[in-house]
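Propose amino acids for all 156 sites.
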């Protein structure tokens, strides 16, 4: 049975770390669904957030392999983190902006920009709610959609 997992990895912010982590996944045939990387404020560390899926055995193997990598300092998974995802959506400005504003507001979103051709909205919520938002707006025929990938932070 396939299980989706969000894993955060705290690493030393040095050259080649991301390459080693992505190589770990590629070398074993594991898929990365989303990947975000950012430095941790006021440190020489970075946080890598990886969304992947597999059966329980595959996920255990991924975690064990991540712990073995030298620049990795900490590995956390779903129950130890809070996750969010952002989305930017472009519509023709001929669509009902007031209706779209109402929909986006219910998903922690808002209108960002309007020009003579397009309106761009953003939302930030959990992955499942972003999926729901994208289903709800399909009738408005979005011109473009960009998702950030999941960002996560440790709860404790």
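Proposal:
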């Amino acid at each position: 049975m396939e299980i989706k997992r969000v894993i955060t990895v705290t690493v030393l912010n040095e050259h080649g770390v991301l390459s080693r982590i992505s190589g770990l996944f590629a070398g074993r045939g594991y898929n990365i669904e989303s990947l975000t990387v950012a430095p941790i404020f006021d440190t020489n560390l970075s946080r890598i957030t990886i969304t992947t899926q597999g059966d329980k055995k595959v996920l255990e193997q991924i975690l064990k392999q991540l712990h073995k990598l030298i620049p990795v300092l900490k590995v956390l998974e779903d129950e130890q983190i809070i996750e969010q995802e952002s989305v930017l959506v472009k519509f023709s400005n001929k669509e009902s902006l007031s209706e779209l504003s109402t929909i986006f507001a219910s998903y922690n979103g808002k209108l960002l920009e309007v020009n003579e051709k397009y309106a761009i909205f953003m939302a930030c919520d959990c992955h499942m709610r972003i999926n729901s938002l994208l289903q709800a707006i399909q009738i408005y025929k979005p011109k473009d959609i960009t998702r950030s990938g999941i960002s996560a932070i440790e709860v404790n």
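Residues 6 and 52 are 7 Å apart (CA to CA). The chain has four helices and eight strands.
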